[in-house]
Amino acid sequence: VQNYLEKLFKLQGKVAIVTGAAGQLGGLYVRTLLAAGLKVVALDIDLNNPRGQLKKIKGSRLLKLSADVTHKLSLQRALRAVLDRFGCIDILINNAALDVPPHRTSGPFEIFDEKLWDQTMAVNLKGVFLCCQVFGAAMARAQKGSIINISSIYGILSPDQRIYQYRKPAFFKPIDYSVSKAGILNLTRYLATYWSGKGVRVNTLTLAGVANAQDSRFLKNYTAKIPLGRMAESGDYRGAILFLASEASSYMTGANLVIDGGYSCW
Ligand SMILES: NC(=O)c1ccc[n+]([C@@H]2O[C@H](COP(=O)([O-])OP(=O)(O)OC[C@H]3O[C@@H](n4cnc5c(N)ncnc54)[C@H](O)[C@@H]3O)[C@@H](O)[C@H]2O)c1
């Protein structure tokens, strides 16, 4: 049994790229993949982002690359650096995204700033499109790989604005994030079928909110909607990353794995 399980989840020596690696969850994915024996490329536009833990992570199997997912040239440079150092790409985790920082106000839909809409779409959707075009295409050429596109419960459901109603000034969870994360689902399906003959599997991983020192009113409102009664800890997503990256998910492509404490059940 031991041997069978080891083979199923074997990832040692494989090469993974994590975009947005310097953020809250990205650093955790980097740690998880390094612990599983992978060579990891941590890509971010801001490698020193104080929100994450990437700065503290070191190792001979880790390559940190500063790159902008909205710029193809920047990604092409990153691709050359990855291939020079590690020779191939086996796993791509499209994790970089813009969300609304908790301290920023977001007005009602009717006056939502179109510049913000454009910025969000550029990173959350075009960024994934470009990373697939550059890194995913290299995987398809090599006839192997697993792509994991990160979405959110707000990409499969509308945000429940009642959660935020207590905030002053009035806050609305904005539309740009939700729509961009919904787009991930069909980008995933499109590429899953497009690359089905090339040995590249493409799946979405849909997450719910992660505990991160939110205020008590928010926590009360949000967790009331979660059957498991708590927000996610970032560690809750590690198993799903290893599952989607490895042969354990070999018959899965174009799918959406929802890890949300039950949020989407009711
Ligand atoms: N944290 C949550 O509660 C939560 C819930 C559901 C889904 N998600 C999803 O998980 C992923 C990670 O979330 P997080 O909370 O770690 O986000 P985060 O904001 O902490 O990190 C995002 C990272 O992306 C980087 N980035 C932004 N623009 C970039 C660009 N143009 N090029 C390269 N890198 C860029 C940022 O510098 C940052 O380090 C996102 O896709 C998010 O939508 C998060």
What does it look like?
- The protein has helices at 2-8, 26-35, 72-86, 114-141, 153-156, 175-194, 216-223, 238-245, and strands at 15-19, 39-44, 62-66, 91-94, 145-152, 200-207, 256-259.
- The chain is an alpha/beta fold and 266 residues long.
- Helix 4 links the parallel strand 4 and strand 5.
- Helix 3 (72-86) runs parallel beside helix 4 (114-141) and helix 4 packs parallel to helix 6.
- The protein is globular.
- The N and C termini lie far apart (37 Å).
- Bound molecules: nicotinamide-adenine-dinucleotide.
- Residues 19-20, 22-26, 44-46, 49, 51-52, 68-70, 95-99, 123, 127, 150, 152, 207, 209-210 line the site of nicotinamide-adenine-dinucleotide (NAD).
Total strand segments: 7
Structure annotation, total helices: 8
Radius of gyration: 18 Å
C-alpha geometry:
globular
Main sheet strand line-up: 3-2-1-4-5-6-7
The fraction of residues assigned to DSSP E strands is: 15-25%
The percentage helix is 25-40%
Low-confidence stretches: none
Give the secondary structure arrangement, pairings included.
Elements: H1 2-8, E1 15-19, H2 26-35, E2 39-44, E3 62-66, H3 72-86, E4 91-94, H4 114-141, E5 145-152, H5 153-156, H6 175-194, E6 200-207, H7 216-223, H8 238-245, E7 256-259
Parallel strand pairs: 1-2, 1-4, 2-3, 4-5, 5-6, 6-7
Bound molecules: nicotinamide-adenine-dinucleotide.
Name some characteristics of this structure:
8 helices, alpha/beta, 266 residues, seven-stranded parallel β-sheet, binds nicotinamide-adenine-dinucleotide
In short:
By secondary structure, this protein is an alpha/beta fold.
